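Human
Can I borrow your eye for a moment on a structure tokenisation matter? Give me a protein, with the fold worked out from its sequence. Write it directly below this note and I will take it from there.

Assistant
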Amino acid sequence: MSVLQEFKFQGKAAVAFAAILVLIGVAILLFTAYLAYQEYLGIHSSVFGSPNAENVTAMVNALVPKILYYGVRLAFLSILVWIGSIFTFRGVQMLGGKTK
């Protein structure tokens, strides 16, 4: 059974739906790439500062919020890439008429 038959789409409606899925997936991936690039441009060496070996506790206390911030941003971007790739994969799969 093809993927298109599972969704009960036939003919032009099936192709249009598959094309919309591909376009949505690619749009999400491009938007994610734009967000990642903007985040990359915003990071510079002074964000983390130079390590101060005299007071390790103060250095750790200053770095932990920044590391958490960038970790959350990375998780958000990863989820967007995952969603975009699922949309794109399913759309291409429907266009190709692959069977399971």
